[in-house]
Each structure stands twice: as structure tokens, then as C-alpha cells.
Amino acid sequence: MAGYIVRRVLQAIPVLLGTTFLIYFMVFAMPGDPVVALFGDKTPPPQVLEAVREQYHLDQPFIVQYLLFLGGIFRGDFGTSFSGQPVSEILATTFPVTLRLALMAIFIEMVFGITIGLISGLRKGGIFDASFLVVSLILISLPVFVVAFVAQYVFAIQLGWFRTTAGPGAPIQDLILPAIVLATISFAQIVRLTRASVIETDTQDFVRTAASKGLSRRRIVPVHILRNSLIPVVTYLAVDFGTLMVGATVTEGIFNVPGVGRTLYQAIIRNEAATVVSFVTVMVLIYLFVNLLVDLLYAVLDPRIRYAK
Amino acid sequence: MKIKRIGVAAIALAAAGALALSGCATSSEPAAPEGDATAIITTNGSEPQNPLIPTNTNETGGGKILDSIFAGLIYYDAKGAPVNDMAESIETDDAQNYTIKIKADQKFTNGDPVDAESFVKAWNYGAALDNAQLSSYFFDSIEGFSYDENVPELSGLKVVDDLTFTVKLKQPESDFPLRLGYSAFFPVPAAAWDDLAAFGENPIGNGPYMLDGEGAWKHNERIDLVKNEDYQGPRQAVNGGLDIIFYATQDAAYADLQGGNLDVIDAIPDSALGTYETDFEGRSVNQAVAVFQSFVIPDRLAHFGGEEGKLRRAAISHAIDRQEVTDVIFSGTRTPAHDFTSPVIDGYSEDIPGSDVLDFDADKAKELWAEADAISPWSGSFQIGYNADGGHQGWVDAVANQLKNNLGIDASGAPYPTFAEFRTAITDRTIQTAFRTGWQGDYPSLSNFLGPIYVTGAGSNDGDYSNPEFDALIKEGLGETDVQAGIEKFQQAQEILFEDLPAIPLWYATANGAWGENVDNVEFGWNGVPLHYEITKAAASK
């Protein structure tokens, strides 16, 4: 087990190096000069452009810029944004916000998705199953910004149940509505995944054995069916958690949540290589970590799974 | 000898404006209710792109904050007229040598005095090439300024005594005092120079507001300002403070105004342009602002030089129905252009000779185009370059369609994916089409809309336009010490532009804003930003 973890962590190093290099290269290769864009529609004298470029090492060749950046990371220095703020500080203020939002969304979709999926699977073909089939199809087909705008307009502006956008410090109560919106993206998938998995598990030999052993349905459903049905769902949730950490850009924009997605979007628009690459690096780290966690969870869910030494 | 006292004239102007305003108020509505002097006004903003150093801030996100926490020599009132703020007087008798006196006993919020040194040092820092300040070009008319070498101290700036300094320009420029309300010219306290990075993060100013303690700038989220009780200038805040919330989208800000979380917004999302005036009836504005939009046709494009070029440019201008585009595409939030400046600028006129080239006239357009074809037959396609990330596609396509229909030529938009890519192509002159451009006035002066863009070799002359007659008129206008005489020269210069049409004027942007029920006295300035210090807010009752 320990050896397995160490190997996985070591594997992460080349992945990290590769991704930072690729991302840095892509930002570098983005056409257009970020320094020119700093001046808006006005054209600055070339000497000023030169001086500003020098300040951010933008006059150096790509490989020098990349090595400077990489060297900085090892010293804990992620560079600075154009506004003069250390990127490490931006990371420290935005990631907790997005993490909170993502965890809330995951919690919501887990509780509702797995419960509804389980009931649908056990009562396959019933009225409950059919109606949630329709609901999940509708949710799958709606783009997230439509859900977000409608939810904001109805629940925040018209009914006044929630704050329209996240207030100072993005407290938990202000994140409930955005979390629900985020949860709707994957909620439908989780329902369908759980349902299919439950139906399949229900026909397995060990379920029949448990039943013929005289166990009550009340015991069979959570212990034998649900637990064994969760493997694909947990895998999906892990991938989804990564997506939520990264892809909440639209929702964060609409609800003005000062998190990763919104900040990254702005950094991309402003061609701030240091910010973009640092954010992506941390995201890659999170992704790797969550995937490792999920692989370890498999063993808990299904004792048949063992990790090779 | 004629001495010009800008300060006095400006105050007289401001007084006249106030009289006119109060006259209005008594006839239409009772005096505004007294606000709560401790109430905090909340408004929209965006994360400043650069540290909050006056000479390094050139965009509206940071500009809005700096204008609130700093006080320059002058400020601009709602109409754009200059009023003395920190200046006691700004005097000149030749438009080239200025003597600036500062009001006594003005202080920064850390107790440092606002003196001649605090201005001169800040300007020297901003001008020096090695400091790579984004607004350095504002100082290039001061004697000693150079882009070829680092000049740590401008020879044109001299401290006379604690409260007096002199400015010598390279050449007479009568609108120099008008520029002094721009953020690049703000003073910086002595304490800043020890650690400028820390200052950029927690700026110490001398304006109507100040930061609400260390770390009031919560990056990507908001900045909280409170009233500066030590500020003695004319922009006294009648409220207790100003919270500027940063938004990534204007939609979110608009939703917050609807939800009651914001008091004032000065930008309306495209999705609400058609409805905001009814959503916020009596609590919204749609007024002209100092932004001029056009598209540039560079001289180097085939068929657009010489006599043929003049004919084709006039034909294109006549072929565009500006009113239709502003009504349909912009829901009336743009005003068709009548000149090359902006209606909010002193000296603006709709009737400059030659401005009828901006009138829509499809027959005339065809006629002129045919005349040009007689010189050299047209071939190819006319394209207008724009950045696809700025919401320009709608109007570019509309204008291209009008050109297609009215001139019978192939015309289309030429999108660049990002603003950076678009501006880079313009700056390095690789763009081979016409291209959109916008000019936001830095300070309310006709010459600011003309000089930097159309004078031979000027910084933002992206179309490489050159006409010695135009250059001479601008120079003469700047040399006039009499404001009216200067305006006349600038108008004559515009007559030349109407003939040459280096850029095709399109429309003026308008300020679009709205406010909530709890606030009053909301007035938008010449640059489209509300005068936050005037806003009153009812005591929190609900």
C-alpha cells in the first residue's frame, strides 16, 4: 500500500513538468503581445513597450522564460501578476473559495443523485423512475449558463431567497445557489450512473445469495447493492471534482464568486503567463491527488481489489 | 502682458453650472433628501490591471479608484470643466511656462504634506524611461523628456518653494493645465518612495476617500474606501465611504443592482441595454461621454491614397447609415458622430464645414465611388478588422452590409480572436485592412482627440496619416493662450480631417448607468463615471 502511494507520487513529477511546459508554451505561443494590449486602444512609444517587456522578462526567448518560471516555483515564487500581486497570494485566496464551492456542489449531487438513482434502480420502470428520467434528460440538455441565469433571476432577484452574487469573502450561505447550479450539471449523470449500476448489481449472484441466506431487504440494499454499485459513481465523482475545480468559470462569472475559474479567465484574457501556468499547475496537482484518493477508495468499497506491491 | 488665470475662469464656470443646475431642481422636484453621512455607497468596478500607482494606471478599473483616493491640481466637474482641487493657481503668459501654486496645509492621509516636491518627484518618476510607467507619454511635452535615454529629472520641472513649482514645456501647449486632472499627474507622498511596491498595494492619497485600512484592496474581489476627513478640497464626500466591488461580467453587476446589493452601476450589460431604462425608470442615465469610435483606413491600403482615396473614403462615409446602426444594434446607446471629438468637450460643434460627409446618402456614395473608379478601377474586398472578444461583431457586420448594399462592393468584417492579437497587428503595421478604433479622452480637450491620433508621427496615429496643414493648425491651436482662439484652430483642423477622412467617424459612446432606490444625487461625469462623492444614501431603514 505505502509502496503503491510512493510510486504514484513519483509518477506525478513528470506529469507536472510536462503539463507546465505545455501550458507555458501555449500561453507563449498565443498570438498577440500582452504588453501592447495593456495600453488599450492607444499606441505607446516602442521604447516604453520595450521597457515594460523587460520588467516581466517578456523580451527573453521562450526557454529562458520557462526556466525562470520553473526555478521560481522551486523557490516557492510563482511570479507576479501585472497588478504586482504575487501569484502565490492569488492562489491562496482563490483556491479555498472554489474548493468550498466544489465540495458543496459535490455534496449536493452526491446526496440527491445517489438517493434518486438508487430508488430509480430498485423500482425500475415505475413512475418515479420514469419521471426522473425526464428530469435528468432536461437537465443534461440545458447549458449551465441558462440554469444559472434562471436560478439567479427567480430565486435571488424575484423571490429574494438568496443573495444575487457572492458577498464579501464568499461565505457558505452565498454559495448555496451557485453550488446547486453547479450540481445540476452532473446530477443527472450521477442519477443515471447509479441507476444502471444498481440494476446490474441487483442481479448479481451475491445479492441472490444474501437474499436466500434470509437477510432482509433493508440490509441487502445498503450493504450489498449500494456499496457495490458505487465504484463507477465514485470514479465519476472524482473526475467531476476536477472539472468543478477547473470548469466553474461560467458559474463563478455569473455569481461573481472570486474563485479560480473567474480569476483564470481574467488572466487568460490578459495573457498573464505566470498566473495561468501557476493555476494550471495547482489544478493538475489537485487532479492527481483526487485520482489517487479514488483509487485508494476502491479498496474500501470492494475488498476484492488489492494494490500490487 | 496677458496673464491667464485658469483657476479663476474655471471657478466662474463651475458656479454658472451650479446656478443652472439649481434652477432646474426647483422647477422639477423638491431638494434632494439629506443622506446619511455615514452611509457607504457600493458600486461596480473591475480588478485594477496594474499596481495603484498614479503614473502606472491607464485603465478604468484602477482609474476609478485613483480618482477617488487622490486629488490632483485640478479635477473635472460633471460637465468636464476644470476646477482647482489642490492648486491655488496655475498661471502662464505664453502657454509654455507655467507657475503652479498649491493650496497651503493640504495633507496626505499619512500626514505628509502635499507640496511642490510631492508633484515634481511623482512626475519625474513617471517620465523616466527606466521606470517603464504605462502613462509616461503624458509627460513628453515637458522640457527634458526623452524616450531615447533615461532622464531621472526633467529639466522643465523646478521647485521654487514648498508650495510653488514651475513647468517649462518643449513648445507652447495651451491645454496643458486641462491635463492636470488626469491620474498620471497626481501627487505622491514622500513615504511612498521607500517601498513603491507596498505603496501600489496600499496607496496613500490625498483625495476625498482613502483606503479602509491596510489590505482594503482584496484582489479580484473588492476595494473598500472610507471618507478622508482631512481632505479640504471641493470634492467633499457627503457619504461615509465607497465600496467598489469587482465584477468579471457586467451581467453579474446588473443582477446585483436588481437584487439590491449594489447602489450604483456605470455599465449596463448588452442583454439589458434595451430594458434598463424601464427597469430603473427615473434612476438611469444614457448620456454622451468622451468616447469617440471610428474605423481607420490606413493610407498604405491600395486605392486609398491620393485623390482616389479621398473620393473612396467620402463614398464609404456617405454609405453608412449611422442612425440605423445606433438604433438597431446599440438600442440607442450610441450617438451618431458629427465630428472627430465628443459632444461633452468644450468647443464641440455639430456644424463644422465639411461635416456633411457624415450624412447618409446612398446616391452620393455611389456617385463618388464611380468617380474614384474612373481614376483607377476598384478590385478586391473592403474589410474592417476588429477583435472578436469585445462585442464588435454586430456593428461591424451591419456596417459591412451597408457598404455592400450601397456601394455594390464586397465588404466584410475581419475578426482577430483576441484584443492582444488585434492591437499587435495594428502596432506593428501588419494589418492590411481598415480597422476599428476607439478613443477615450484622457482629459476634456478637443486637442486630446486630434493631436495624439492624426498629427504626423503621433503615438496613436495607427493609420500613419500625415498632413502638414493639419499639423500646423494643431500646433497653432495649442500655442494660443486664448481658449476660444485655440478652439477655432482645432475646428479648422477638423475641416481638413473631413476632407481627408483618415478615419471614418462612426458614433460617440454614451454612459449607461442605473442606481437603486436608496440613493440620490447620482450624477455621471464627462468620462461616464458617477461623481461618487456627491451621492447621498438614505439611512439604512430596510
Could you describe the 3D structure shown?
- The complex is a heterodimer of chains A (309) and B (542).
- Chain A has 13 helices and no strands.
- Chain A has helices at residues 2-29, 34-37, 46-55, 62-74, 87-122, 127-141, 144-158, 172-202, 205-212, 217-247, 249-254, 260-269, 273-301.
- The termini of chain A are close together.
- The mean pLDDT of chain A is 83.
- Chain B has helices at residues 6-28, 60-69, 116-127, 176-179, 196-201, 250-258, 276-279, 306-319, 322-328, 362-375, 393-407, 419-427, 446-454, 468-479, 483-500; strands spanning 4-5, 40-45, 74-76, 82-84, 87-92, 97-102, 157-161, 164-168, 209-211, 217-218, 222-227, 241-246, 264-265, 284-296, 334-336, 381-387, 410-416, 434-440, 503-515, 519-520, 536-537.
- In chain B, the strands form five sheets. In chain B, strands 13, 14, 15, 16, 17, 18 and 19 form a seven-stranded mixed beta sheet that branches.
- In chain B, β3 (74-76) and β4 (82-84) form a beta hairpin.
- In chain B, α8 packs antiparallel against α10 and α14 (468-479) packs antiparallel against α15.
- Residues 1-32 of chain B have low confidence and may be disordered.
- Chain B: One of its GO terms (biological process) is peptide transport.
- Chain B: Keywords: Signal.
- Chain B: Residues 82-459 form the Solute-binding protein family domain.
Write the layout of secondary structure elements.
The complex is a heterodimer of chains A (309) and B (542).
Chain A: H1 2-29, H2 34-37, H3 46-55, H4 62-74, H5 87-122, H6 127-141, H7 144-158, H8 172-202, H9 205-212, H10 217-247, H11 249-254, H12 260-269, H13 273-301
Chain B: E1 4-5, H1 6-28, E2 40-45, H2 60-69, E3 74-76, E4 82-84, E5 87-92, E6 97-102, H3 116-127, E7 157-161, E8 164-168, H4 176-179, H5 196-201, E9 209-211, E10 217-218, E11 222-227, E12 241-246, H6 250-258, E13 264-265, H7 276-279, E14 284-296, H8 306-319, H9 322-328, E15 334-336, H10 362-375, E16 381-387, H11 393-407, E17 410-416, H12 419-427, E18 434-440, H13 446-454, H14 468-479, H15 483-500, E19 503-515, E20 519-520, E21 536-537
Parallel strand pairs in B: 2-12, 16-17, 16-18
Antiparallel strand pairs in B: 1-5, 3-4, 5-6, 6-8, 7-8, 9-11, 10-11, 11-12, 13-19, 14-18, 14-19, 15-19, 20-21
Helix pairs in contact in B: 8-10, 13-14, 14-15
Domain Solute-binding protein family (chain B): 82-459
Protein name (chain B): ABC transporter substrate-binding protein
Keywords (chain B): Signal
